[in-house]
């Protein structure tokens, strides 16, 4: 069994003391590939550097909606330069966050639109952070990422309702499924994960955040993507091996990563 953690922040300070050990624990759990997205320019640079150091890590670069005010022409140019690196395979995480609402909506939307355009210019997927803003995020994506030149869309840590999930799937988007699948109050998410086509789902941890039960309250790490996979298998009534194979292949297809390259090194 091999698994792909499509969203883990392994570059952050929380892993400075045991990053190598976290990779080893993940490998022992069957996790052979990792996508490290970014929050801002500094984390984009760290993610790209980590991907350059390890053959099992790929990076996304971008400015999170909570840092939308940072996105000026110079930062955008720096992100574009990072996209020239072969192991930088997506723009993200980008989007809208009305929960924290740290910037005016027009500033957040402008940053979102500019980064969608960046992804389209380079033909790479976008990884979407959306909190309490799913309707607006879907509207922006419809306006800015439709027709010729549209790029793949991954809705990270999907938190929309069933109708929004159906609309996302109708458009061909992927849904990121992580630790919240295990939370007691996540009935809507479990119903979506049960009903959605398996070929539209990918697994993630959002490490060091969103730790699944029963480890909630502790630091999350990529090995727990195996626990998410196991819960998804139970919810769908299928074998864990089927979930692992399908979601891993989905991730490879989404990010245009050859399966053999993800398994070439699991040190």
Describe the secondary-structure layout.
Elements (H helix, E strand, L loop, with lengths): L2 E3 L13 H10 L2 E6 L4 H13 L3 E5 L11 H10 L5 E10 L7 H18 L3 E6 L2 H11 L8 E3 L6 H9 L3 E4 L9 H9 L5 E3 L21 H12 L3 H16 L3 H4 L5
Parallel strand pairs: 1-2, 2-3, 3-4, 4-5, 5-6, 6-7, 7-8
Helix pairs in contact: 2-3, 8-9
Can you describe this structure?
The chain has 267 residues and is of the alpha/beta class. 42% of the residues lie in helices and 15% in strands. The chain has 10 helices and 8 strands. Strands 1-2-3-4-5-6-7-8 form an 8-stranded parallel sheet. α8 packs across α9.
Properties at a glance:
267 residues, alpha/beta, TIM Barrel, eight-stranded parallel sheet, globular
Radius of gyration over all CA atoms, rounded: 17 Å
So what's the overall shape? globular
> Count of helices?
10
**Which class in CATH terms?**
Alpha Beta
What is the level-2 CATH architecture name?
Alpha-Beta Barrel
Distance between the termini: 17 Å
Short précis:
This protein is of the alpha/beta class. It has helices at 19-28, 41-53, 73-82, 105-122, 134-144, 162-170, 187-195, 225-236, 240-255, 259-262, and strands at residues 3-5, 31-36, 57-61, 88-97, 126-131, 153-155, 174-177, 201-203.
């Amino acid at each position: 069994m091999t698994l792909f953690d499509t969203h883990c922040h392994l570059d952050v300070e929380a892993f400075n003391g045991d990053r190598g050990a976290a990779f080893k624990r993940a490998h022992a759990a069957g996790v052979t590939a990792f996508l490290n997205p970014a929050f801002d320019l500094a984390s984009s640079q760290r993610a790209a550097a980590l991907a350059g150091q390890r053959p099992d890590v790929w990076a996304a670069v971008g400015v999170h909606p909570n840092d939308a005010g940072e996105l000026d022409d110079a930062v955008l140019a720096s992100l574009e330069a990072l996209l020239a690196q072969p192991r930088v395979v997506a723009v993200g995480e980008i989007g809208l966050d009305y929960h924290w609402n740290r910037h005016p909506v027009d500033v957040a939307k402008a940053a979102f639109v500019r980064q969608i355009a960046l992804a389209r210019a380079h033909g790479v997927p976008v990884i979407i952070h959306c909190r309490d803003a799913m309707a607006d995020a879907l509207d922006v994506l419809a306006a800015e990422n439709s027709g010729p030149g549209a790029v793949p869309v991954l809705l990270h840590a999907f938190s929309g309702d069933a109708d929004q999930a159906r609309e996302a799937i109708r458009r061909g988007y992927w849904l990121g499924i992580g630790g919240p699948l295990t939370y007691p109050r996540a009935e809507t998410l479990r119903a979506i994960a049960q009903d959605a086509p398996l070929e539209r789902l990918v697994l993630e941890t959002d490490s060091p955040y969103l730790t699944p039960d029963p480890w909630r309250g502790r630091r999350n790490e990529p090995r727990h993507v195996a626990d998410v996979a196991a819960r998804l298998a139970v919810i769908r009534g299928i074998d864990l091996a089927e979930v692992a194979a399908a979601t891993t292949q989905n991730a490879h297809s989404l990010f245009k990563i050859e399966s053999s390259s993800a398994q070439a090194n699991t040190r």
